[in-house]
Design goal:
Order of helices and strands of chain B: HEEHEHEHEH
CATH architecture of chain A: Alpha-Beta Barrel
Number of domains of chain B: 1
Helix content of chain A: 25-40%
Strand order of the largest sheet of chain A: 1-2-3-4-7-8-9
Structural class of chain B: alpha/beta
CATH class of chain A: Alpha Beta
Radius of gyration of chain B: 12 Å
CATH class of chain B: Alpha Beta
Number of helices of chain B: 5
Structural class of chain A: alpha/beta
CATH topology of chain B: Udp-n-acetylmuramoylalanyl-d-glutamate--2,6- Diaminopimelate Ligase, Chain: A, domain 1
Radius of gyration of chain A: 17 Å
Largest sheet of chain A: 7 strands, mixed
CATH superfamily of chain A: Metal-dependent hydrolases
Largest sheet of chain B: 5 strands, mixed
Number of strands of chain A: 9
Oligomer: heterodimer
Order of helices and strands of chain A: EHEHEEHHEEHEHEHEH
Distance between the termini of chain B: 8 Å
Helix content of chain B: 25-40%
CATH topology of chain A: TIM Barrel
Strand content of chain A: 15-25%
Distance between the termini of chain A: 8 Å
Strand content of chain B: 5-15%
Largest interface: A-B, 11 and 13 residues
Shape of chain A: globular
Shape of chain B: globular
């Protein structure tokens, strides 16, 4: 099962305008992906229209969000329904500082409908830290019925190892995201308490442009995905 | 300089009163990015940070810091302080920002 579980729509200020619901889903299908998640920064407001487009095209869609903790660590929350992400959104609204977006500096934060038309603008800057710790964030994702993946764990920016030195041994995450298979060895060498086989590893694109969405190259065995996600694709 | 001599002169809250302050102090390190602190801190330094995550205890132990100073009224959870007490790492709270906290330590002869 070919996947890409980390990409940004045009709602994220740092993503290109071309990352519209239809463009994302069409490109994912063109590339041969079977399941995608869209994970905008600290917002779930683009998920309703993208999920509708994905469904109409027969693409399995996971409702995602890339949350930023007070330590500036990025964590993906993945959910199987819009209701769950609506609850998550209420929680985000409680914990996100109200800083106005400066479009010239950060970029546009547009919400688009199933026809890719702009139907809303998020005025609050999304690339900020919520006032919650890594532990509280993982707990909240679980509370709302989602899976928590530590994003790009070896990145030099906004990764758990960069911000916090290492991955805590008692953090109950559900998966680790790496950029390459070689990175898995680095993670294992640095963290003797992480078991290769009992950890679910993901290689995602973190695409901000259409061209960067993953090719048909990263896959999870169907049964492994079903065991992990709880639903088969 | 000994840690207890230094902190007797400062009006900073001792958040781990059960931990011994019989430690040497040789300089100060300021930083919040733990991967950076892990790579650059030196033994017996006073470490000033606003980072309150549990991992600061492991980093302080690894670098053999003399103590941790949480600056700028940053928050720290009780579980972190319990761990610090278990590990014998003193934690203080300075209500000043990082720069002013460091200046005060310089004034006291660190």
């Amino acid at each position: 099962m070919y996947y890409d579980l980390h990409m940004h729509s045009c709602l994220s200020p740092c993503a290109e305008d071309e990352m519209t619901p239809n463009n994302i889903c069409q490109m994912a299908i063109l590339k041969g992906l079977e399941v995608i998640a869209v994970t905008d920064h600290n917002s779930t407001k683009q998920l309703a229209s993208i999920s509708e487009v994905a469904k109409s095209l027969g693409l399995y869609f996971i409702y995602g969000c890339e949350l930023e903790t007070i330590e500036e660590v990025h964590i993906l929350g993945l959910f199987d329904s819009i209701e769950k992400t609506n609850n998550l959104q209420n929680w985000i609204d409680e914990h996100m500082p109200n800083i106005p977006n400066q479009v010239d500096y950060f970029g546009k934060q547009e919400i688009r409908n199933t026809k890719d038309e702009v139907i809303g603008i998020e005025d609050r800057l999304l690339i900020v830290s919520l006032d919650v710790s890594v532990e509280e964030c993982v707990k909240a994702i679980h509370h709302f019925g989602g899976k928590a993946i530590l994003a790009h764990v070896l990145d030099r920016k906004n990764s758990i190892t960069h911000q916090l030195g290492f991955i805590p041994n008692d953090l109950p995450y559900d998966g680790l995201e790496i950029k390459t298979l070689e990175q898995k060895q680095t993670v294992l060498e640095k963290h003797p308490w992480i078991q290769e086989d009992s950890t679910v590893w993901f290689i995602d694109s973190d695409a901000h442009r259409l061209i960067d969405i993953s090719e048909k190259e990263n896959q999870l065995e169907n049964q492994l995905f079903k065991d992990w996600w709880g639903i088969g694709v | 300089m000994k840690l207890h001599e230094l902190f007797n002169e400062l009006n900073w809250d001792n958040l781990t009163p059960d931990v011994s302050l019989d430690k040497d102090v040789e300089g100060v390190y300021c930083g919040d990015l733990l991967s950076w602190v892990m790579g650059n801190g030196l033994p017996n330094q006073v470490w000033i940070t606003v980072q309150g995550h549990m991992n600061i205890i492991a980093v302080a132990g690894l670098r053999e810091f003399s103590c941790i100073v949480i600056a700028d009224n940053a928050s720290i959870e009780d579980t972190v302080l319990q761990k610090a007490t278990e590990e014998g790492i003193p934690v203080f709270a300075s209500h000043l920002p990082v720069f002013e906290s460091a200046k005060l330590l310089i004034e006291k002869g660190v």
